[in-house]
């Protein structure tokens, strides 16, 4: 019997007014997977993430989460269900400390027991030692990479079943990008299913089980990350190889 996908999107169409941005995309993510959605600027990656989070309505199509139709479910109920999108690094609360920012992550999914809260916090500080060192520092004074780490940490405080990450490497220095991708792999290997949107093809494909290539609102190719890494068309379009 095939396993029920954690996330299944069927023929999703999304419009901005009269403009159709997504023309009927289908994708799935199985429990435990790290899946990347790869595409150039304007391909529709952010639109996809916003639709999955419940921030944009579908014109047509279906979103299933753990086999349940959540197409019409409100954004905060999706958070309660465990579908959590990390905000962009710039989305951290600049006047709040690192610890206060992390605590905000529990807002939609409060802990029932103090021990579980502490355990999750300890894990996040283990993943991001920099955040532990800076736990009393306000968010606005962190570096770009540290703010991105904080944004991911905040999402982890909600104990996602599916973590949505929209271009976590954007605007970061190469060394920091390496670090962020390593941590994403670590989060995944510790049991959190991840759907990652990226333009950084090399890093993302290397670390993904599978990937979908998106172009102008459509999925044009899918396969194992390792297979797409050596696909000549993908290489020339996304890896800067002519
Ligand atoms: P980027 O990496 O630049 O964010 P993307 O792959 O995330 O690109 P989207 O931002 O999802 O792409 O945009 C997909 C399409 O929808 C683009 O043609 C874009 O111009 C259009 N679009 C995005 N936001 C809006 C909006 N608020 N109103 C109208 N059109 C929009």
What does this molecule look like?
Helices cover 37% and strands 26% of the residues. The protein has 242 residues and is an alpha/beta fold. It contains 10 helices and 10 strands. Strand 7, helix 7 and strand 8 form a beta-alpha-beta unit. The strands form 2 sheets. Strands 6-7-8-3-9-10 form a 6-stranded mixed sheet, with helices on both faces. A 4-stranded antiparallel sheet has the order 2-1-4-5, with helices on one face. The radius of gyration is 18 Å and the shape is globular. The site of adenosine-5'-triphosphate has 11 residues, from strand 2 and helix 1.
Compile the SSE list and pairings.
Layout: E1 7-16, E2 19-29, E3 34-39, H1 45-53, E4 60-65, E5 68-69, H2 75-81, E6 83-85, H3 98-104, H4 114-127, H5 129-133, H6 144-156, E7 162-166, H7 174-189, E8 193-198, H8 201-207, E9 210-215, E10 218-224, H9 225-229, H10 232-238
Parallel strand pairs: 3-8, 3-9, 6-7, 7-8
Antiparallel strand pairs: 1-2, 1-4, 4-5, 9-10
Helix pairs in contact: 3-6
Residues 16, 19, 21, 39, 41-47 line the site of adenosine-5'-triphosphate.
Task: Give a quick set of tags describing it.
alpha/beta; 242 residues; binds adenosine-5'-triphosphate; 4-stranded antiparallel β-sheet; ABC transporter domain-containing protein; single chain
Overall pLDDT metric:
93
Q: Tell me, briefly, the overall form.
A: globular
What's the main sheet like?
A: 6 strands, mixed
Low-confidence stretches: none
Task: Please bin the fraction of helical residues.
Answer: 25-40%
Count of beta strands: 10
N-to-C SSE series?
EEEHEEHEHHHHEHEHEEHH
What ligands does this structure carry? adenosine-5'-triphosphate
Q: For the CA atoms, what is the radius of gyration? A: 18 Å
Alpha carbon gap, first and last residue: 43 Å
């Amino acid at each position: 019997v095939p396993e029920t996908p954690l996330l299944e999107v069927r023929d999703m169409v999304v419009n901005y007014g009269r403009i159709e941005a997504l023309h009927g995309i289908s994708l799935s993510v199985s429990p435990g997977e790290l899946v990347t959605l790869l595409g150039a600027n304007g391909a529709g990656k952010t639109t996809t993430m916003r639709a999955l989070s419940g921030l944009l309505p579908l014109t047509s199509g279906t979103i299933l989460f753990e086999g349940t139709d959540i197409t019409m479910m409100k954004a905060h109920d999706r958070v309660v269900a465990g579908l959590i999108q990390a905000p962009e690094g710039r989305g951290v609360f600049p006047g709040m400390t690192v610890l206060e920012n992390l605590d905000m992550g529990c807002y939609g999914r409060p802990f029932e027991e103090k021990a579980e809260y502490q355990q999750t916090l300890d894990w996040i500080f283990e993943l991001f030692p920099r955040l532990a060192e800076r736990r009393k520092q306000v968010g606005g004074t962190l570096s770009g990479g540290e703010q991105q780490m904080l944004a991911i940490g905040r999402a982890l405080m909600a104990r996602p079943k599916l973590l949505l990450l929209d271009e976590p490497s954007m605007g970061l220095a190469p060394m920091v990008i390496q670090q962020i991708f390593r941590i994403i792999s670590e989060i995944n290997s510790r049991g959190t299913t991840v759907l990652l949107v990226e333009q950084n093809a090399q890093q993302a494909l290397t670390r993904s089980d599978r990937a979908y290539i998106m172009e102008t609102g459509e999925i044009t190719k899918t396969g194992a990350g390792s297979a797409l890494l050596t696909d000549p068309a993908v290489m020339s379009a996304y890896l800067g190889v002519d």
